[in-house]
Every structure is written in C-alpha cells, then in structure tokens.
Write a structure and sequence with these properties.
- The structure is a single chain.
- This protein is of the alpha/beta class.
- It folds into three domains: about 10-120 and about 255-285, Rossmann fold; about 125-250, Response regulator (Rossmann fold), CATH 3.40.50; about 300-400, Homeodomain-like (Arc Repressor Mutant, subunit A), CATH 1.10.10.60.
- The protein is built from 16 helices and twelve strands.
- The strands form two sheets. It has a six-stranded parallel β-sheet with strand order 2-1-3-4-5-11, with helices on both faces.
- Strand 6 (about 145-150), helix 5 and strand 7 (about 175-180) form a beta-alpha-beta unit.
- It is globular and about 65 Å long.
C-alpha cells in the first residue's frame, strides 16, 4: 500500500532531454495533461535513471513512470540511460511504467505484465519514406543505394533498413546494399564499403548519430558529399544535423505524438485499465532536406541553401529580397529557380515556416497573440490572424481552445 494519500499522482518523467526527441516527447506529455485536464505531480529526471535514484524517490511513493533511453552517449560508444534493473524494480512493486523507444529486451523481460507498455515510432514507415525521398530527389538519379544501421541487435534499426530496401526494390531500384556492421570513427571497413558503392549513390542511416559517423568517415576518406554520395539520417536533431559538414538531411519522426501517447497510456494504467503491451505511434513523419542530399545541379544547391536559411531565419524578419542578398543572387533569379524546383514562391515558403511556429506556440505555450506575432516575425497581429485563418480555415483562438496539434 502506498504511504502517501495525495490525490495528485506522483509521476516520474525520465527522458533524454539532451536530444530533440526527449524535449519533443516531454512536450507531448504536457499536451496530454492540458487536453485531458488531469493534474500530475511531475518529477523530471534529466540524467541517468538507475536504481540508486530511488534513494531520493522511494518506489512506494510513485504512481507512475514515463521513461526513454539515451543510447547515443559518448564517442561512438553507448551508455545506458535506463536499464533493466530499474524496470524490474518498478514492475516488482507494481508501479505502472510506460517506456518510449526502449530496446526489445525490456519488452521481453515483462511480457504479460499488466503494468507496463512500450511506445515506439513506426520504423516501417520511416524506412519507406527514406526510400521514397531518395528515389525521387530533385535533379539527381542515384545509381546505387545503401543502408547503415546504428545497432545490429536492435529491431528498430534492422526494420528501417529492411523496409528501406524493400521499398526501393518496389520502385524498381535493384542495387541496394546493407552495411554488415556498425559505424565507428575512421572505420576502414565502412570507408571501403562506401567507396565500393557505384556512384552517384545514396545512403540511409538508421539515426542521425549513425549518419554523422558516415559523414565523418566520408570527410576523412575523400568521399564527396553530396557530389558522390548523399546521406540521410533519422531524428532531425539539430545537434547533429545543422552543424555537420555538410548539413545533414534527416527524417523527423513524430516524437511529440510519442510523448502524448505515452502519457495517455500511463493515465489508463494508473486507473487500473488494461492497455496493449506494444504500441506504435501513427503521427506526422516528415523529411527535412539539407545539403547532404542536395542535387548536383547548381540551381538545386542554391534552392537547398535557400531552404536552410528560411528554416533558420524565417521568424527573424526574413523576406525574399534579404534572402537573395544572402545567397548573392538577384531576387528575380531566386524567385524563378525556387518556383521551378519547389513549385511555390519564396514568400510562400517563408510564410509556411512562420505559421508552423505560430501553431507550436499556440499549442505549447500561453503566450498572447501579440507576443506570438513578435516571435514569429509578423509586424501586425491582425495580419498574422488573417494568414492563419486563410491557411488553416480556423481562427487562432479556436485552434488553441481545441487543443489539437493540427487543424
């Protein structure tokens, strides 16, 4: 029996906050609490989640746990953020636990438990999207394709590679190769494998950490990216993607939806309801294209650079004239080439980024519309309201009150 009699449940949230996925997952948890009206006494864990933690948080005082895992610490070495000893301790005391993207061994250890659930992104969808994106990249026809996995013993990594290869073959591409190992710094086997791919080639890595390793091997081994080899990762984590050389294209899973589903599932478990042990998130999966998959044509590279600047500066007063100046070309040439490749104007692209930021602030903060207009680069609150309604078919107030992430 629990020692405390508080009506508000005490919930530990232990996620890899050092990475984008952990922050997005936490935002999803908070969105669930806003939408449901539930109140939890949250204990946030930013560091490793080991058994020793329960000297500060006695197991008997906990009503539930949401936990993720960080397996990307260190330099191409992996330190556990959450381990099986913790899960065994929690389940033995019948504390409801929802794990996000935990390794397969955790699920096997508690098979049949009514107090656990495991949430994951859809690796099949990610693999298929990677294949479709690389097979249809503008102005660039790849001769061969490759997959490099982060962990040979993880089902999510294997699944991404398998569905990537399957989808490419469905699309008519026969030369698809799987690297038979894991990525290491200055790995001579990986370098030889990359050099052996018929060029131009495209490589899909199972996550950004792995893709960053591929880029470093290419840089040290004289393989030109993206001229000879395009590289695509997963997670869209700015730590890896923005500051790599070149900047890394990446698939962005819906981590926020993972956090929302995890909180929804934990709520049911804490109320004594049964849930499925394993659940996959069905959410938005998008590709953020950067220079590592830029087409070889000069106009294609210019447009890719334009997209990167728009993504970073759209809310800082950027317009087409300023963008053309940053690229060192005329406004007329920028508008012409951008519309030829992207099928829309530069102004429309800037507006889209601003409006997405507006949506995030509406759903994730209590900021006033005036403050949101300032943060998103709009000189007028009324103009922002006008373009929002035109784009999404509802007012900003209605969108915020509905609590939905997408109109």
């Amino acid at each position: 029996m629990k020692r405390h009699s508080a009506k508000v449940p005490i919930v530990v949230v232990a996620l890899p906050f050092a990475y984008r996925e952990g922050v997005d997952e936490y935002n999803g948890v908070m969105r669930f609490l806003r939408e449901s009206g539930e109140e939890w006494n949250l204990r946030i864990i930013r560091h490793s989640f080991g058994v020793e933690l329960f000297r500060d948080f006695p197991v008997e005082d906990l009503d539930g746990v949401i936990c993720g895992i960080n397996t990307r610490s260190g330099i191409m070495g992996y330190e556990p953020y959450f381990n099986a000893d913790v899960l065994e301790l929690l389940t033995s005391r019948k504390v409801p636990v929802v794990g996000i993207d935990l390794p397969d061994v955790f699920g096997s250890a508690v098979q049949g438990s009514r107090k656990c659930a495991f949430i994951s992104v859809d690796s099949e969808r990610i693999g298929r999207m990677a294949a479709q994106h690389l097979a249809k990249t503008e102005a660039h026809a790849y001769v061969s394709f490759g997959f490099v996995g982060a962990f040979a013993d993880r089902a999510w990594s294997r699944d991404r590679g398998a569905f990537f290869a399957r989808e490419l073959r469905r699309l008519g591409h026969r030369d698809v190769r799987i690297f038979p190992g894991e990525v290491g710094w200055n790995d001579p086997d990986l370098l030889a494998w990359l050099k052996a791919l018929p060029k131009p080639a495209a490589v899909f890595a199972s996550n950004d950490h792995c893709a960053d390793g591929v880029l470093r091997v290419c840089l040290g081994g004289g393989v030109r990216v993206p001229d000879d080899l395009a590289v695509l990762g997963v997670d869209d984590d700015p730590i890896f993607c923005i500051h790599t050389h070149p900047s890394l294209s990446s698939i962005h899973p819906d981590f926020e939806a993972e956090g929302h589903l995890a909180a929804q599932t934990l709520s049911k478990l804490m109320k004594g309801r049964r849930v499925r042990l394993r659940q996959r998130v069905v959410g938005d999966v998008t590709v953020t294209a950067r220079m590592s998959t830029a087409p070889c044509a000069p106009s294609g590279r210019m447009v890719r650079q334009a997209d990167e600047i728009i993504a970073e500066r759209a809310c800082d007063g950027l317009n087409a004239d300023v963008l053309a100046g940053l690229l060192g070309i005329s406004r007329r040439l920028l508008d012409l080439r951008y519309r030829q490749i992207k099928g829309r104007s530069v102004r429309e692209a800037i507006e889209e980024v601003r409006l997405e930021h507006v949506r995030r602030l509406l759903s994730g903060t209590r900021l006033s519309h005036r403050e949101i207009a300032r943060l998103c680069g709009y000189r007028s609150e009324s103009y922002m309201e006008h373009v929002f309604v035109k784009r999404f078919g509802r007012s900003m107030r209605d969108y915020r009150n509905a609590g939905n992430r997408t109109p």
